[in-house]
Amino acid sequence: MALSQSELMRLLESLRRADGVEAIRVACERILQELIEAEATEVIGAAPREHSETRTTWRNGHRDRVLTTQAGDLDLKIPKVRSGSFFPSLLERRRRIDRALFAVVMEAYVHGVSTRSV
Q1: Distance between CA atoms of residues 110 and 62, nearest Å
Q2: Is residue 99 part of a domain?
Q3: How confident is the model at residue 15 (pLDDT cuts 50, 70, 90)?
Q4: How many helices (H) and strands (E) does the chain have?
Q5: H helices of the chain, where?
């Protein structure tokens, strides 16, 4: 049985009070990192240090990416490839500002608020 949004928020709040947020943050970070590595393996056609006939390119290190969540900042490592490019489908590309801030700026523009007022 799935939990409702309010039940999930209460659960998260109780874990936060009991210092469970760090456990959630670590678990989320680990799960996301494993998903990113699995997707990279699928795109490349071979796991790290594996020789395969279906390999399309080679891994070439990692680049750091910070993902901000309600549980805290997650430090992820995005695999780099030698030829072509790879970016995990579960993350957004080039997200520079928060969506809420972007919506506020757009609404201010629509209502004619001057840049000095903003």
Answers
A1: 41
A2: yes
A3: low
A4: 3, 2
A5: 5-17, 21-44, 99-110
